[in-house]
Amino acid sequence: MRTLAFDGRMGASGDMLLAALLAAGADRNALAPIEDALDVRYEVDRVDEHGIAATAVRVVLDDGSDGAHGHTDHHHGGHASGHSHTHDDSDGHSHTHDDSDGHSHTHDDSDGHSHTHDGSDGHSHTHDAATPAEGHGPHRTYAEVVDIVGSMDLPASVESDAIETFQRLGEAESSVHDTDLESTPFHEVGADDAIADVVGVALLVEDLGVGRIATTPLATGGGTASMAHGEYPIPAPAVVEIAAGADWSLRGGPVDAELLTPTGAAILAQFADGVESLPALNVDAVGYGAGGYTFPDRPNVLRALVGDGGRTLNRESITVLETNLDDAPPEVLGDLQRSLTDAGARDVTILPTTMKKSRPGHLVKVIVKPGDTDRVARRLAVETGTLGVREHGAGHRWIADREFRTAELSVDGETHEVTVKVASDQEGEVYDYSAEYDDAAAVAAATGLPVREVLRRAEAAVRPET
Question: Which of 116, 407, 415, 440 is most exposed by smallest CB count within 10 Å?
Answer without folding.
Answer: 415
